[in-house]
Amino acid sequence: MDIRLFGNHKRSTMSATTLLTEFVLAAAENGGQGIPPSAGAALAVGLAALGAGIAERGIGAAAVGATAEDDDMFGRGLILTVIPETLVILALVTIFLV
Amino acid sequence: MSLYQTDSGGNYEYVTARVRARKAALFDDDDYRKLVRMGTSGIARFMEETEYESEMNELGARHSGVDLVEYALARNLAKHFDDLLRWADGRLYDYVARYLRKFDAWNVKTVLRGLYSDASREDIEDDLVRAGEFSESLLDQLAGSDSVEAAVEVLDSTRYGDALADALRDYEETGTLVPLENAVDRTFYEDLLSDLPAESTRATELYQEFLHAEIDFRNLRNALRLARSGADMDPSEYYIDGGRLFDESEIRQLVGNTDQLVEHIRTSVYGEELEAALETLEDAESLIEFEHALHRAELEYAGRLSNKYPLSICPVLSYILYKEREVENIRAIARGREAGLEPEEIEEELVIL
Q1: Are A24 and A53 in a shared domain?
Q2: Does B86 touch chain A (CB under 8 A)?
Q3: Domain span at residue A49?
Q4: What tens digit of pLDDT does each residue of A33-73 get?
């Protein structure tokens, strides 16, 4: 499995999905118990962080570009860049639910 | 500058963000209205306080007046377009570099015209726009060649070599530059759309869509010029392959009949965009107004494509078009003021959206 976060969008999302399926399959084979709740929650947070990272990649690049042209864009760019971070914060809720 | 190909898609986010900021910073209509009312020295002073400051200062020692303005414009254009190449990566770089070969074509034509009219080496070099793919040394060599034939020889190893060598015979027979210039233009447009990656992605499609539009507008402009001038020339000589609006036999027919030509455009994909332009054509009977309306429609179409597909090649190409328009407008104003035209007359020459 190769994960190339900095190569192609599609490729990184795809290998993340393969990673997940293989993990679930392995867990299912392992006594048929399924995933333990805490591992599921960890997975949820981790995947949300991955999603946020992919989203921030594009926004960050655009924000840096805009800041390079006009310094006043720094604040606005920073805010827009971290908006996908809310995904991770919401995913963190699962930790307290299990 | 050379073309390298990588398998990555390109950093569209970064490049389009910067390009949009630059496009927003271009002169607006109010600036043009102010400029039109200034004298040539006023224009030079105005430009020193804007975007063009560093170029104006660099060239200020060697040139003055309208020449200074003009060279500063060319140099600034080259700087901005080099920036585009500096930022772009992957396939995006490839698309931008292909499009900027337009300036190679421009430079080749400038050199040929210069040599043809026995201009001095300095004059030719001043008129070059160093934004294309040709290296500095090749351009120097070109400008230093002492005849049209020698320049064609220098270009032998470039993509224009074969076409120019073929056209050289025509040139020697007729003694006019037209065959050579056509050869350069055609090579440029043919290469633009050839050798694209075989798998067609969304990015490639958009690039093609943009260029189809550009080729169509160019064919249209040529067709109208021919139709209007009534010159007895074969329109297919000027026809550029690759557009969607006409094919070669259609254009031959339509040039003879302006009404039919207008009707053909009205029912085409560009009908909506060109509505206003077509009306001017019918009312005004003046080709220059229609050409400006056409130019406006082209810019608007480019602007719409870049709003529709924000993360694509479209915003970059549309910026290139807008920047070129700014340079053309300022040049027209400066030259017009120098020639003593009235502000109203100059405003008619400008392409203002």
Answers
A1: no
A2: no
A3: 37-98
A4: 667 888 889 999 999 999 999 999 999 999 999 999 989 99
Q: Does B11 touch chain A (CB under 8 A)?
A: yes
Among A13, A56, A70, most B C-beta atoms within 10 A, so best to mutate, is A70
Residues of B in contact with A62 (CB under 8 A): 13-14, 16-17
- Tell me, what's the pLDDT at B233? 66
Is the Cβ of B18 closer than 8 Å to some Cβ of chain A? yes
pLDDT in tens, B47-91: 888 889 998 888 888 888 888 888 899 889 999 998 998 999 888
Residues A67 and A97 in one domain: yes
Same domain, A9 and A57: no
Domain match, A29 and A44 both: no
pLDDT higher than 50, residue B5:
no
Helical axes B287-308 vs B202-229, angle rounded to 10°? 170
* ipTM rounded to 2 decimals: 0.72
Distance from the Cα of A1 to chain B's closest Cα (Å) equals 19
Distance CA A56, CA A50 (A): 10
Residues of chain B with Cβ-Cβ distance to A68 below 8 Å are 18
Question: Mutation test of the interface with chain A: which of B6, B8, B16, B18, choosing the one with the most A Cβ atoms within 10 A?
Answer: B18
Asked if residue B135 belongs to a domain, the reply is yes
Q: Write the CATH number for B142.
A: 1.20.1690
- What is the residue-averaged pLDDT of chain B? 82
Contact assignment for B311 to A58 by CB distance below 8 Å: yes
CA distance B80 to chain A (A): 12
Question: If you measure CA to CA, which chain B residue comes closest to A9?
Answer: B9
CA distance A70 to chain B (A): 8
Question: B70 near B43, Cβ under 8 Å?
Answer: no
Parent domain of B183: 104-192
